[in-house]
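User: Modeling request: complex.
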Amino acid sequence: MEGKVLHRPKVDGLCWRCSPTAAAGGGPHLPDMDLDAVTKHSALHAKPSGLILQYGTAGFRTKAEHLDHVMFRMGLLAVLRSKQTKSTIGVMVTASHNPEEDNGVKLVDPLGEMLAPSWEEHATCLANAEEQDVQRVLLDISEKAAVDLQQDAFVVIGRDTRPSSEKLSQSVIDGITVSGGQFHDYGLLTTPQLHYMVYCRNTQGQYGKATTEGYYQKLSKAFVELTKQAFCSGDECLLLKVDCANGIGALKLREMKNYFSQGLSIQLFNVGTTGKLNHLCGADFVKSHQKPPQGIEMKPNERCCSFDGDADRIIYYYYDADGHFHLIDGDKIATLISSFLKELLLEIGESLNIGVVQTAYANGSSTRYLEDVMKVPVYCTKTGVKHLHHKAQEFDIGIYFEANGHGTVLFSKTAEMKIKQLAEELEDKKRKAAKMLENIIDLFNQAAGDAISDMLVIEAILALKGLTIQQWDALYTDLPNRQLKVKVADRQVISTTDAERKAVTPPGLQEAIDDLVKKYKLSRAFVRPSGTEDIVRVYAEADSQESADSLAHEVSLAVFQLAGGVGESPQPGL
Ligand code: 16G
Ligand code: MG
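Assistant: Request completed. Predicted assembly structure:
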């Protein structure tokens, strides 16, 4: 394979890296790939021997010091994907809600979606290839995926605020440039902002301008328009406290604040000046510990929310007058949004089909409320944004949220055009409703779930409906639930079906769960191997917290016994 050049020889025998303009990213492009140069550079980003990583639910994620080779190789892969799709591809360097020492990377496909599953496999192969096999794997992928190597390649890059992110994104850039791709480095961005940029670039600006300024303008214009007729305008309605998880959300929200200063006053906490990223704060901490983050001052009945480390998740919460903490998760966000959209559709008299997409983690009360009270169809998919996003694309209006706060709303092209047309044709109240829908379409980030965009949608709905956070919370009462983790030798011995609600293997596990569930009222339980950690997750809900805790514990024991538990067996109360 030595010295092999894909398709075309090097022009004038010169590698483009020798060009004086190359360093700025705007060098002359060679649509082919100089494999010699790739090999040379790859050696500078050597893979630690024996390290095997998987492109998981949201890309690669592990300790930052193990990721240099993965970053370089994802630069190479992004170039191939860009050539194959003839589109701009995104690379985001982030590990979301993981601890600060970790990092990760994921690729963003042409319409701002997650990377296609067949390319996740290519990513895993390339990341795990031993040094001497990198060329062969690249050739293999090009062949399997019928990549036209003569095509130009363009990649955009974003990164979060982790100390390791800047250097790692340089390794991505090295991979892109050495394989003849061109790039634009956006530097610090939230994950959903990068998805937005990719979507804008591949729709020739139709979706919006591919700059942070363009993003701020598009969203704030829609927000300001939408809230012009807000019912609630008192100081107390306008104030929102935001825990930014000491991450990128703080920087971006601070920049954006000035664009909508009239309609909403936000106070930022955990902005990263003193605290550590995601440490005792952020959406993941609040949701999994069911308690407020550190570093935020909360008065009774004040509306607060938390972003995660890369600002693609949001969770709301408050203390009531008796000092009880109330969590408003992705399920309740989906319910608020669904009821608002349904009302607007009724108003304009248009029967566009709405679907709500959840996962097995959705609280049973939310599913019952959506189906029985609101009469909207609810669908369940496997965990992971890409599964929900994909399902939501089947509807005119597809609302998807994971309980953990990832989610957005997708509008089909037909729905969007219909609403635009009605906003022109209808009159009075109907026209107003159609205009609101038009602005809602612009306010949602339709490329990916987005904490900033979701926050503005929620704030607009609460203001328009004159709802307090307590009234929103009172839509339904969550069933008490508990999540636990179990360590097993190989979590892949657990396989599931029915959108992860039933275990297929190991034999006997599902029967054991069924028997346990029968012992409790309003109960439900399921287990699944985590896509992000080396553990099995257990979820249980029941009519009381005591029952949910006890059911979760009993299911954990069943997993430990039947699926090869390691270490100490699960103890009650943990
Ligand atoms: C990732 C997923 C999230 C999912 C979570 C499940 C994306 C962008 N993120 O964070 O959707 O809920 O993994 O983690 O897809 P688990 O498999 O460890 O339970
Ligand atoms: Mg995230």
